[in-house]
Amino acid sequence: MTPQPPHPCCVPTKSRLARLEASIQMSFQRATATAGSLENMVRVDASRFRMGCESADAIPGDGEGPVRIVTLGPFYISKYAVTNAQYSEFVRATDYHSEAHRHGWSFVFRNHVAEARRGPSMPGSAWWVRVDGADWEHPEGPDTSTLERPSHPVVHVSWNDAVAYCNWAGYRLPTEAEWECAARGGLDQKTYPWGDELTPEGRHMCNIWQGQFPDADLGEDGFTSVAPVDSFAANDFGLCNAVGNTWEWCADWYDAAWHAMGTRVAPVGPPSGTYRLMKGGSYLCHASYCRRYRNAARTGTEPGTSTGHIGFRVARD
């Protein structure tokens, strides 16, 4: 019998090998940071963990799979998302102007804005409206302030704004692999940072939407908007609010297929792209529309984007 050729997916074509080599080189060359304070940081030891998701929970097209064993060196990651108080220190020290501030507007969830203040809605997502004067310091417009919300996560910050903060404070953004490893808290292939059940024994474990999206949030978890960074119990590594509340920027460019052929050792994502990667979901996530409040869930958006549900946490070596 004549031997049959191997299946195409098993053939190490030149393009696939080149992609793998590029991925390996990027993992060696990734940015490092060691100057940031260790206050409210947790150390994640060198580890191997199963990253990604192939269950029915995975969202088609997002690139959550395949499940793969990833190896990471030790790193630190913040227990909490960066707060308004922390970001305010950065702005006062540097006179930094966020992208939303420079543009003069940002996107705000329509239910949080008086109709008279609502500008044009985002195409395809009518619940987001342009609000002139909205920025990190004025989350729902010029007549609102973060002064009364010092422990809330800073929002209306772009990926570029987050990197500027990191550079000032001596940190870096976590890679997607670091973020997911830390969010899992040592639990193997669990859906959420605390396990597989969304509300164990009826307890709400994160800030997401309850009710009919996008018209009525019942607030059964205690919140109908962004919550303070320590509002829910920490996972086994000490991270609070890893899922829900606000999306969190990661260092990587977003690509739905890159990791299928990328290195499994300290991966950092593709070398370039259009979108930057975000993890964790937000208070606007609901099972009827967006079940991305899971450890493996991922999405991407333009690095200049700012909205009322995107923030970040920091990492260092």
Give the secondary structure arrangement, pairings included.
Blueprint: H1 14-29, E1 41-44, E2 47-51, E3 68-72, E4 75-78, H2 84-94, H3 99-103, E5 105-109, E6 121-122, E7 125-132, H4 159-169, H5 176-184, E8 211-212, E9 216-217, E10 247-253, E11 276-279, E12 299-301, E13 310-311, E14 315-316
Parallel strand pairs: 10-13
Antiparallel strand pairs: 1-4, 2-3, 4-14, 5-7, 6-7, 8-9, 10-11, 11-12
The CATH topology name reads paralog of FGE (formylglycine-generating enzyme)
What is the overall shape?
globular
Rg calculated over all Cα atoms: 20 Å
In DSSP terms (H or I, runs of 4 or more residues), the helix count works out at 5
Q: Which percent range describes the beta-strand content?
A: 15-25%
**Stretches with pLDDT under 50, minimum 5 residues:** 1-11
The biggest sheet amounts to:
4 strands, mixed
Tell me roughly what share of residues is in helical segments.
10-25%
Q: Give the total of beta strands.
A: 14
Order of helices and strands: HEEEEHHEEEHHEEEEEEE
Which architecture does the CATH hierarchy give at level 2?
Alpha-Beta Complex
- Please state the average pLDDT score: 93
Number of domains: 1
* CATH class category: Alpha Beta
**Distance, first to last CA:** 56 Å
Considering the protein shown, what is the CATH homologous superfamily? paralog of FGE (formylglycine-generating enzyme)
Strand order in space, largest sheet: 12-11-10-13
Which structural class is indicated by helix and strand composition? alpha+beta
Written overview of the protein:
- With 317 residues, the chain is α+β, with helices and mostly antiparallel strands.
- The protein has one domain: paralog of FGE (formylglycine-generating enzyme) (Alpha-Beta Complex).
- The chain contains five helices and 14 strands.
- Strand 8 (211-212) and strand 9 form a beta hairpin.
- It is globular and about 55 Å long.
- The relative contact order is 0.21.
- Mean pLDDT is 93; it is low at 1-11.
